[in-house]
Amino acid sequence: xxxIYTTFLCERSKCRKESILVTEEVEDTIKKGGYISxxxxxxxxxxxxxxxxxxxxxxxxxxxxKVHGAIRQVRxxxxxxxxxxxxx
Length: 88
What we know:
three-stranded antiparallel beta sheet
């Protein structure tokens, strides 16, 4: 069974942010000749970190809270670990 969500990490040294995308949409975009880029800075150099069926597993490395009805990231787990591991 294929995973629903795929997590990508921007390789740009100034950005290093994470994007969670629907796997089916990623495959469709690549199949049509498109590319996946960072949603924060637009860089094409993104690497897949992992894939899962549960959205909470994609978000478990950081702390989040609700601010005015939207979920905001409070603390990143990547900073706590010191360096980034590609496959957790």
